[in-house]
Amino acid sequence: IQDDHKLSTSELEEKYGTSVDKGLSSARAAEILARDGPNALTPPKATPEIVKLLKQMVGGFSILLWIGAVFSWISFGIQLAQGAESPFDNLYLGVVLALVVILTGIFAYYQEAKSTNIMASFSKMIPQHALVIRDAKRKELPADQLVVGDIVEIKGGDRIPADVRLIFTQGCKVDNSSLTGESEPQSRSCDFTHDNPLETKNIAFYSTTCVEGTATGIVINTGDRTVIGRIASLASGVGNEKTPIAIEIEHFVYLVAGVAISIGVIFFIISVSMRYKILDSLIFLIGIIVANVPEGLLATVTVSLSLTAKRMAKKNCLVKNLEAVETLGSTSIICSDKTGTLTQNRMTVAHLWFDNQIYSADTSEDQTTQPFDQSSPSWTALSKIVTLCNRAEFRPGQENLPIMKRVVVGDASETALLKFAEVILGDVMSIRARNKKVAEIPFNSTNKFQLSIHETEDPNDKRFLLVMKGAPERILERCSTIMINGKEEPLDSEKAEAFQTAYMELGGMGERVLGFCHLYLPENDFPDTYPFDTDSMNFPTSNLCFVGLLSMIDPPRSTVPDAVSKCRSAGIKVIMVTGDHPITAKAIAKSVGIISATSETVEDIAKRLNIPVEQVNRREATAAVVNGMELKDMSLQQLDEILCNHSEIVFARTSPQQKLIIVEGCQRQGAVVAVTGDGVNDSPALKKADIGIAMGIAGSDAAKNAADMVLLDDNFASIVTGVEEGRLIFDNLKKTIAYTLTKNIAELCPFLIYIIASIPMPIGTITILFIDLGTDIIPSVALAYEKAESDIMNRRPRNKRKDRLVNEQLAVYSYLQIGIMQSVGAFVTYFTVYAEQGFLPSTLLGVRVDWENNAINDFEDSYGQEWTKYQRMYLQWTGYTAFFVSITIQQVADLIIRKTRRNSIFQQGLFRNKVIWVGIFSQIGIALILSYGLGHVTALNFTPLRFQYWFVAVPFAILIWVYDEVRKLLIRRYPGSWWDKNMYY
Amino acid sequence: GLILLFYLVFYGFLAALFTFTMWVMLQTLSSDIPKYRDRISSPGLMISPKPDTALEFYFNKSDAQSYAEYVSTLRKFLESYDDSKQSQNINCTPGRIFDQNDVAVKKACRFNLSELGQCSGKEDKTFGYSKGTPCVLVKMNRIIGLKPEGEPHIHCASKEEGTVEINYFPPEGLIDLMYFPYYGKSLHAHYLQPLVAVQLAINSNSTKEEIAIECKILGSPNLKNEDDRDKFLGRVAFKVQMTE
Q1: Tens digit of pLDDT for each residue in A200-234?
Q2: What pTM does this model have?
Q3: CATH annotation of B34-242
Q4: Using the beta-carbon criterion (under 8 Å), do B2 and A840 form an inter-chain contact?
Q5: Do A760 and A743 share a structural domain?
Q6: Residues A732, A794 within the same domain
Q7: How far apart are alpha carbons B140 and B46 in whole angstroms?
Q8: What gap in Å lies between CA A589 and CA A650, rounded to an integer?
Q9: How far out from the chain centre does Cα A283 lie?
C-alpha cells in the first residue's frame, strides 16, 4: 500500500494532479476513469449460463444415457442398412433417451437458477452516490464514477465511496467493522498517526460507513485497488470445496453406474457367447443401462433440496447453493460471531447501581417495562441525569413503533440510555423540552465526561441543574457527596469502597459502566441570566453529588441460549469468535451457554486453587478463552491442541484474518465447519468453511457473495433450525434413493431373464422410462416431506467418512431383497397374463427368436391356436402393461415402507405425511391413464389391462410391507446385532 | 457365512413362493381352452411353403435345386393329411358347422388331399414348380371356438393384372364350414385345418418380374381382412419371382 497517509495536503495535490478547492476537471476525471475503470468491485467471475446448462446435461447419469442413445442410433443405422422391417424403433428410442437427458438437464438447471436468482435479487444494491468537487463545483455523482484524485465530501450516515485520504474532518467517526471486525466506531482526523496505513487515522476505507461528523478527502484508490477490493479478490482465490452432499451423490452415481456398466458388459458378453447377434446384444445393453439408471432421481434430489431450501428460507436461512442445505446438517463445528449473531447488536442497560445496591434490568428484545424497584428518590435523580445528559434523539415519525425498534441518532451508549429512559419514563423528548438545556460540553477523550446544564421543570425552583456522566472513576473524582435514598451524604472511604466493589463487579461482567452525578447550582450565584461559557467553564465541575452507576452490554438474543443447548445435544461444538474484549466475550459466552455454568478455564482453576496458571493441569479445563494476541504466536500444533482438548472455546480480540486460521484448524480435526461472518474481511474464512453463513442485515456484499447461505435475521438460532432441516433432508434423501433404486431391479430382471431364458420381452424400454420419469417422480419427492423418525437433534453429526448417503446396506437391501421381491411379483403377473391368454409358462421358454420373427404368423400357443405377429406383439404389450402395473402397485408398498428406516410405520403414522398419499394417488392415477387412456396409442406400448391383473401383485406388495416391518422390529429389538448391522441402512 | 445362509433361505423362500403362486395360478386354468380368447378374435392367414426370408419365392423352374426346399416343405406339411393318417377321421356333412359341444370325444373331419387337385402332390411331385405353375397352400389360423359365418373362401389377386392366372383347389377357394369349430389341442387331437391351394400360372412374359400377390378371406362377415396394423389378419401377401 502506498504512503499517501504520510504526505501533506500539497504533496497529495501534486501527486494526484488535483486541487483541494477545485477538484479535478471533468476532462481529466474522464481520462482517469478511462484508464482505471469504474470505481466498483469486479463481481466474482460467474460461470457462463450455457456452461452450467451443459454441465447438467453431461453430469451424473447423463453420460450413461447418452451412451444408450448413441447405441440406439448405431443399431438404427445398421438395421437401416440391412433393410430390416422396423428400424425406426431404435431411432425413436435414441431420441427419447436424448430428450430425457436434455429435459432433466434443463429441469435441474432451472431449479439451480431459481435458487441463484433469489440471491441475485438480494445482492443487487441501491446505487450509491457521492458528493464530489469537480470543476470547482460540488456535484452528486454515482459512486462508480469516482476516480483517483477526486475530492469527496462525506457526512454521517454515508458509505465511504472509495479509499480516501482525509484532509479535513469534523467529529468524524467511521465504523470499520466490515474491515476489521471492530464494532466500536473509530474517530478519524487529518493527522498521520500510524505507519501502517490500515491503522492511521487519516485514511477512510471503501465500504466502511461514516457514523457521525463530516470529512473531506482525496480519493487515493478506487475499485479493485482499494483495500477491500484486494481482500475480496483474495477471497475469490480460495477454491470452492465440494459440498458433502455433492460428494455423496457422486459416490452414489459411481455406485449405480458401476452396477449398470458391469451388468451391462457381463450380459453383453453372455449374449454374444449365447450366439445372439452383436446388434441384438447391443440393444440388450441399452435396455440394461436404461433399466439400471434411475433417470428421475437426480431431478428428484434437486427438487427435494429446493423444497428444503424454501422451507429454510421461511425460517430465515436463505440458501445460495442448493447443496449447502445438507452441508448445514452435517456441520460439527459452528464458528459464530458474537456481535449481532449471538447478541442483539445494540447496547442495552443491563445493571444499575444506586443506594449501594445493584439492580438488574430487563435486556430482552421486546421490553416494555422495567421490573426493578423504582421507588427510591435516588432513582428519580438518576433517571433525570440519564434523560438530560444525553444528546441522542429518536428520528421523528416513529411514534407507532415499539421503543426498542425505533431508529436513534446518536452513539450506542446514548441510544441505550435514551431507550432505557423512554421505556421507564415515557416521552423523553418532552421531559427534555421542559428542562431546557442552557449549556453543554459533549464527551471528548481528554475529559472523559459529558456535561449539560438545564433549567428545571419546577417553575418555583429557579436553580439550574448541572448533570454529568462519564467514566465512573473520573466522575467519582469530581464528587464530594453521594446520594443514598435521596439524601446527600458525604463520600467517605467506606462509601468509596462500596462504589469500587460495584464498579469491579459490573466491569467483571463485561459490561460498559458509566457514572452519573449532578449538582443544583445555587440560585444566588447563578441567576437565570447567568452567561454559561463552556470554554472557560465558569461553573463548578467538582464537589458534585454522585448518584449512581449504569452498566450496558450488548445482550444475547433471547433465543440463543436454547439454540446453543440444542447444538450441544446435537453434538455440534459452538465456538465464539469475536473481536471483543475477552471479559465481555466470556460473559456473553457464559450467558448463552457456549461456556456452561460449571466449566472453568485454566485461569478460573488457577484463581480457585490460588496457584499460578502454569501449574494448572490444562486437561482439567473444559473451557478456554483464547486471546487474539496469544493466537498470533501459536503454532499450528498448539492451536490444534486447544481445539482438541477444550470443548468450549471462545476466541476474543481476534481479527477476521485469524478466523481463517481457526476455520482451517477445525477442518484439520476432520470437522465440517460452519462459519458466520459479516465483514469483507470474513470472506476468505466464509469461502474456506464448509458452509459460510453471511449475515443478511449486517453483512457486507462481499461476505454475502462468499457465503453459501445468508441468515436473513442475523440470528444464531436460525442456524440451528437450518441444521435440523439439513439433517432431515439427508435422512429423507436416503429414503428417496432407497425407494428409487428398488424398482431398478424389477426393471433389470426382465432383460436378464429375457436374454437367458429367451422368453418374450416382459417390459419395454419406453415403459421403464414411464416408471422412472412418470409414476415414481411424485412419490419420491413426497418422501422429502417425511417427518424425522426420532429427535434428529439428539444424535451426533454424521461422520463424513462413515455415514454415507448410499451405503452398502441400502444398496443391498434395495437391490437384492425388496427389488427381487418386486421382480418376483411382477413376473407372476406377467406369466399370469400369458397363461390366461393361452401361452403357459413352459411354452414361453426359449421362444424368443420365433416369437419376434415377423414372417411367422401362425405361431402356435399351448392350446393349438395360431397367432399372427401383431397378435403376439399386442399380447407382449399387454405383458409390458401388466409388468408395469405390478411394479407400480409394489412401489406403493415400497413407498410406504420407506417412510421409516427403523420405526414401525404405525409409530410414524400412516397418514401424517399427506404428500405421500398425493404420491400414491398420482402413481396409481398415472398408471390408470397410461393403461386405459393411452392404451390405444401404439407407439407407447400400453394396452387397456384387464382389471384383475392390477391385483395379482398385491399379495407381494403386502409381503414387502410385512417383511420390512419384521426387519424394523428386529432392528429395534436387537440393536447392534448381526441383523441390525446388515439390515439397517 | 451367515449372510450367504441368509440369502440362501431368503431366495429359497422366494423361489418357493413363486412356484406356489404359479402353481395356484395354473390350477385356475383349464387344460382344454385358454381362459381368454379375446386377443385372437379373428384368424390370420398363412401360406405354406414359407420361405425363410420374408414371404418371397425365388426359383428357377428348370433348376430343381432352386425349389427343392419348397417342395420338401410342402411334402412335409401335407404328410399329416395323408389318407393313412386320417383313418379315424370321419366324413362330415359339407357346408354345415360341425358342432360337438355335447360330445366328450371330439371327432375330426376328414380333409381329402384329392381336393387339392393338381396341388396335392400326387400327380405332380414338384407341385407345379417345374412347370412354372407353382402351388402355394393357404391356411387359416386355428382359433378355438371360431365359427365362420357365410361362405368363407380364399381369393387371391396379383397387384398388376395379367401377370398371373390363379387357380384354386378346392374350386373357388372354398373353406368348408364343417371343419369348424376347433376344440383345442387336447380335445381335438386329430383336427386338420382346411387348406386352399393356389396355383399360379405365371405368364411367360412376366417371368423375371417380382409378382406381388395378396390373398384374402372373403365371404364371411365375422372374419376380418382389412386391419390397418395386422397385415396378416384374414389376408396374406407374398411375392413370387420365377426365372427360366
Answers
A1: 888 988 878 887 788 999 999 888 888 877 776 66
A2: 0.82
A3: 2.60.40.1660
A4: no
A5: yes
A6: yes
A7: 6
A8: 7
A9: 47
